[in-house]
Design a protein that fits this description.
The protein has a domain of about 100 residues. About 5% of the residues lie in helices and about 20% in strands. It has 1 helix and 6 strands, in the order ββαββββ. The strands form 2 sheets. Strands 1-6-3 form a 3-stranded antiparallel β-sheet, with no helix packed on it. It has a 3-stranded antiparallel β-sheet with strand order 2-5-4. β4 and β5 form a beta hairpin. The longest helix is centred in the first third of the chain and has 7 residues.
Length: about 150
């Protein structure tokens, strides 16, 4: 049986906000990702992580911008929704990136209409990615806890 846990994509950056156009913004939507990367496949979006390109370690909530980052659409930031102040001195969206956690496109991983309710089997019941439906910070690039040594 294949591993059906969601798999994180690389960071996508499909659009760039136009600072001179109030009706512009940054739109890292699943539709735009599919247009720019036709080979990208996602059977089911399980989770998303969004970050500002120039501030990858700063949580989006701390950037002072109105941004939607969701498993429904991806990332949407409209210039017209931004206020002067925050991390940049103009009412313009920052350039954002999105990483998507997708269920693999294997028939065994997709829900079957014939079974009314099934419990997905997971190799490790302590996975933290399942408990958080939407993440607005970048995935931590560390391999695990820092080992402690005693002399």
């Amino acid at each position: 049986l294949p591993d059906c846990d969601c798999i994180w994509s690389d960071w996508f950056d499909t659009t760039y906000p136009d600072a001179s156009d109030k009706n512009s913004g940054d739109y890292e939507t699943f539709e735009n990702i599919g247009k720019k990367y036709p080979s990208w496949e996602c059977a089911k979006v399980e989770n998303v992580s969004c970050r500002a390109e120039k501030f990858p370690t700063t949580p989006i909530a701390d950037l002072g911008q109105k941004v939607e980052c969701s498993v429904d659409v991806g990332l949407i930031c409209n210039n017209k929704d931004q206020q002067i102040g925050g991390i940049i001195p103009m009412p313009v969206c920052l350039n954002y990136e999105i990483s998507v956690c997708c269920t693999p496109n294997y028939p065994e991983c997709l829900p079957t209409p014939s079974t009314p309710s099934t419990t997905p089997s997971t190799a490790s019941p302590t996975t933290s990615s399942v408990s958080t439906p939407i993440s607005t910070t970048a995935p931590t690039p560390t391999a695990g806890p820092t080992p402690s040594s005693t002399t």
